Amino acid sequence: MISRPRSSFFVLGLLATATACAGPSVAQPGSPAAQSGGSLAESGGAESAVGESGSALAESVWAGIYSQQQAERGAAHYLETCSSCHSEDLRGNSNAPSLIGSSFMFLWGDRSLGDLFTSIQTLMPTNAPNSLPPQSYLDILAFIMESNGFPPGTSELVADPAFLGQIMITARSGL
Ligand code: HEC
């Protein structure tokens, strides 16, 4: 599950090495390194691509996509169902990954809320996957959003895969 970001860093490392070591006569415009560089740079365009699809007010986690009350309900579910492994402050431990901060963004940055929802629902808790009502998983998702500093809004998250699938988890509001 962490192979994607890792490989990105790996490619960056390769690029840096290539840039540092290769003299002008060695560098080739069509080399694999040059091509990966292009696709890395373009990956920052995900937000505009979502915007162009035309549907949504909510296209990122910064758009106020859950409500405060929902996050409060989620906090209660989290304490009951998740905190034994991921800890009360969501920071995880040597067994279970952190669900907040830079570790969370490392795993989930530039992925959709739909991906995160599906992972939680189908894998968690590890000893009883898919054992909660969908609404409880959504509420927990809202609590995780709140804990990561994404702002609440007026309406609740709903279990609509198309909607969740287009909301991107991004590190900043894309200004
Ligand atoms: C019995 C311990 C346990 C409980 C309870 C538990 N988790 Fe986990 N969780 C883990 C472990 C271990 C991993 C890492 C291995 C894995 O992904 O299966 C993990 C991974 C995750 C991930 C990352 C999954 C991925 O695909 O990268 C998320 C998100 C998560 N848990 C959320 C939750 C939520 C939300 C709850 C409560 C509904 C919960 N977990 C309950 C142990 C637990």
Question: Can you tell me about this structure?
Answer:
There is one protein chain. The chain is an all-alpha fold. The chain folds into two domains: 3-46; 68-166, Cytochrome Bc1 Complex, Chain D, domain 2, CATH 1.10.760. 54% of the residues lie in helices and 0% in strands. It contains nine helices and no strands. The protein has helices at 3-21, 32-42, 46-52, 68-81, 83-86, 101-108, 113-123, 134-147, 161-166. Helix 7 crosses helix 8 (134-147). It is globular and about 30 Å long. Residues 1-28 and 30-57 have low confidence and may be disordered. Heme C (HEC) binds at residues 1, 81-82, 84-86, 95-97, 99, 107, 119-120, 123-127, 140.
Keywords:
single chain, about 180 residues, mainly alpha, Cytochrome Bc1 Complex, Chain D, domain 2, 9 helices, about 55% helix, globular, disordered N terminus, binds heme C
